[in-house]
Amino acid sequence: MIDSTTPLKATDPAEIRAERRRLVEAVGAQRRLLAARRPFELADRRRLNREAGARTRAQARHGKAVQRIHERRARSERSLTGRLNGLDGKRAGRERQALVVLRRESIERSLRGTRLTSSEVNGIGSGLARDLAAQGIRTAADFQRVSWGKAPNGRGGDVLYIHRTQGRKVHINGIGEHRGRPLMEWRRAAVARAEARAPKELPPDERHRIEEIIENERARLQAELAEVPKTAEAARAEAEQLHAERLATLAAAEREAGEEAALRRAGFDEMAERLLALRVELAAHVEQYGDLGFRDRRARSRALRPVPSAPPVIPAPRAPEAEPEPLSGSATATAEALPVPGVRAGLGWLVPVAFFAMTALFGAGVTDATPMWFVVSGRLVALLMTAELLRLWIPRRDWRTADAMPAGTGFLAAGVFLGLVAASMFADPSYAADSAPWGLAVVAVVLVGAGAVRRAGVGSAVSG
Predict the structure, then answer these.
(1) Number of domains into which the chain is organized
(2) Does residue 256 share a domain with residue 170?
(3) For bias kind Pro residues, which ranges apply (predicted)?
(4) In this structure, is residue 13 part of a structural domain?
(5) Of 197, 221, 247, which residue is a domain's last?
(6) Whether the Cβ atoms of residue 180 and residue 101 lie closer than 8 Å to each other
C-alpha cells in the first residue's frame, strides 16, 4: 500500500522539465525582487542623514535664539544699571539747571524793575529818556550792548547803535560815545546788583520736587530692571516650547519613516527566506533528476547568480533624542545639551581690523625715503595683528563659543597701531627731528605695556 504523504516521483520528462523551469523562474523572480534591497538601504541611510541634519539645524536654530535672548537681557540690564547709577549725577545736573533758571529769572525781574530815568544815568536827560522809551528801551532789561556802525542814512560817518534785547538795533540822536559809555556802565551796575541779589541755592520746595522726580524715575528703572529677568525667562520658555514642538514634529516624521522602512526591510527578509527555500528546492530537484541539458544549466546559472550584497544597516549619527515632554523637563534637557550663552564680541572690533588690513596693504606713512626693510616689517606687523584680532574675534561671534574679547586686547591694538605711526614718522626725515614721534612712541609703549599686563593678569587669574 502506498503512503499518501509520500509524493509520487514524476517520471514524465516533460513534467520534470516543466517543474525545473518553474523552480528556475521562481528563483530568478525572487532574485530580481531582492536586488532592490541595496538601493533601498542606501536611500534609507540618506534618509537617516537628512533626519540627523534636520535635528542639527533645529538645535543650532534654538541655540541662536537662546543666545539672542541672553544678549538682549545683558544689554537691557547693562543699560538700566547705567541709568540707575547716573541718577545721582542727573539729580545734581537738574539742580544746577534749575538754579541757573531761577537766577536768570531773578536777574531778569531785577533788570525789568530797574527803570531808565534821567536821574540814574549821567548825561541822559529827560528828553533822551523819552526818546529811548519811544524805541522800547525803558529798563536795563530792554537792551544788551552798544556798538558803532554806519549811519542809517549813510551820511555823517559812524554812529552809536543800541542793541535791544528783543528786536533790531536802534540809533538815538544825541547819544554818542560820551553818553553811550555811561549808559552801558549803568546797565553793568544794574546787572551786578541783580546777580548779587539772585539766589545762590535752590529753595527747599524746588529741591524736594527734583528729588521726587529722581526717586520716581529710580523706582521706574528698578521695576524695569526687575522685569528684565522675567521677560528673558518668558522668551526662553517660549523658545524651549517652540524647540520641543519642532523636535516632536521631526520625531513623528522619523517614526513614520522608520516604520515604513522596517516594513520594507521585513518584506525583503521574507523574500530572502523564500529565495533560500526555492534554491534548496531547486537543488533537491537537480539532485533527484540530474542535469537536463545545456539550456537547463544556462537557465540555472543565471537564476543562481549571487544577489548584490546590501550595505550593512548602520544607523547614521543622530542628535540626542528629545521625546515630547512637559515644558520643564524638555527645557532642562535642552539646557543641559546647549552651551552656556555669553555676550558676543562687538562688531566694533572690525574697525581696528580694517585699520591694520589697510596698513598691511598700503603701509603706514610710506614715502620715497622710507627704507625697504621698514616697509616690509611694518606690513608684516600689521598683517600679524590683523590675523590675531580675527583669530580672537571670529570664534567669539559664534553662539556656541560667544564671549567678550580678552582684557587688554584694545590697549595692545591701539599701542601697536600708534607704534607703527611713530615708526613711520621716525623713518620720515621731515618728522624725525620733531617731538611728535617721541610722544607717540611713549604712548604706544604705555598702551602695549598696559595691555600685556591686563592679558597676563587675566590669564593668571583663569589658570589660578
Answers:
(1) 3
(2) no
(3) 308-318
(4) no
(5) 197
(6) no
